[in-house]
Design brief:
The protein is mainly α. The chain is built from four helices and no strands.
């Protein structure tokens, strides 16, 4: 006697396959979502570091100019902190993105690093001139 599949058996098999497909889809979707969340978190951290570069560069420059305009040494603190931290944030940014950069992005980052070094050097040289009493030369560097 041969055993025949009944309609009920076929429906059970189809239901089981559909259920397993749903479970597999849910697992794959959960993994994809976790990857996307991690990527979004990394992107947020990168944006915070970029923001730190901008904020610290502005603080250094604002502190320098405030000191030049007023002679008030209270402006030196944001100048010192900004000057120090802008380079640290730039290095952190490189570390965070170096493994995923394209050659064009690498070139852009090199330009950013160079521009940051030039700006910090400009700030330092103008401050040295100002402290040495060469105010007009310091202001010329700023201009």
């Amino acid at each position: 006697m041969t055993k025949r599949f009944s309609v009920l058996n076929i429906l059970l098999i189809v239901s089981l396959v559909a259920f397993l497909t749903c479970v597999l889809t849910i697992v794959l979707a959960a993994r994809a979502e976790a990857r996307q969340r991690a990527q979004a978190g990394h992107a947020f951290e990168v944006m915070q570091v970029l923001d730190g570069i901008i904020v610290n560069a502005l603080n250094a420059e604002t502190g320098q100019r405030g000191y030049f305009l007023t002679g008030d040494e209270d402006y030196l603190e944001p100048y010192r902190i900004g000057r120090r931290d802008v380079m640290a944030h730039t290095a952190t940014f490189r570390e965070m993105v170096s493994d995923t950069m394209t050659p064009a992005q690498e070139a852009t980052l090199l330009k950013l690093e160079n521009a940051t070094r030039v700006k910090v050097g400009e700030l330092e040289s103008s401050m040295e001139l100002f402290r040495a009493g060469k105010i007009s030369a310091a202001l010329e560097v700023v201009r």
